Amino acid sequence: MKGTLWPAWRQQRALVAALATLAACAIWVALRRADMTAFIDAHHIPACKGWDPEECSTDAVTVALAQRLIEDNTGAIRLLAAFSAALPVIIGLFWGAPLIGREIETGTVKLALSQGAGLRHWFTARLGLAALCAVVASTALAALVAWWWAPVSNMLDGLYWHDGFLFNATGPAAVACALFGLAVGTAAGALLRRTTPAMGAALAAVAGTRLLLTFVRPDRLEPLRRVTPGAAPKKYVGSAWSTGEFGYLDAAGREFPISRYCRLSGPEMRQCMTEHGFVARYHKVYPSGDLWTLQWIETAIFLGLAAALLVATYAVLRRRLV
Hints:
There is one protein chain. By secondary structure, this protein is of the alpha+beta class. The protein has helices at 5-10, 14-43, 60-106, 108-113, 119-149, 164-169, 171-192, 195-216, 266-276, 290-321; strands at residues 224-229, 241-250, 255-257, 278-286. It has a 4-stranded antiparallel beta sheet with strand order 1-4-2-3.
């Protein structure tokens, strides 16, 4: 490892700590998951997708055991998921902000550029190694969360694919967000020229963007309208993400929300439907297949923002240092 790569590698002080943390997480997850799968096999617990126990074609004792298994693991899985979801913020603070900001603050960037390395080569070497570390760390952590969660995914009162912690902690969006965190921290360091303020700016920007995208996530896709003719039993929600929108349909297919009409059940509901001319009921959900559509949408957003920030950062550095 020669040239600008060697000092860039030496200055990744957090790398050893990150690798040790990932190794500890991997061991912990492997042990906990082994206990989980052994319990599932020993008690022949089926994969009951959905929150309603009636969806499980099994006895009440097995359902109770499944509930116990989920309760014993949900908190720990969510804890690991929270760590994975917070990783982009950590990367922005401790890798991104000092990456360029510390060099400018201490003046060592001038020494580095005076050694014959051009700005582009220096910037690419420092950023490239940090980006590689961010991708490896975020991919490994996201994979651990998904692997642990898989045996009890979308079951009963456990974690579902649309859970904020879980969605933000897994999939390509988690990796893209880690790169976004690095780009935000790097840009903040280059613009503010001081590490501590850059860390504060990175924290606010990454956390704020993640919260905003989580808040508007349901608005990106049109929900599926499930229709139940007449007063027949409604289809179970299963692993879908319910919007909470229920109601009735008339013969023309117009919607009448249940909050305003026939908030009843049994014979009273059927009578109310007849009086209002309702021929069916509806319930709007996001099916579990929307997971990957939403994941790729957020991946594109994070990568696009990261690319724009890095281009802007390089332009600022070129104007100030060259």
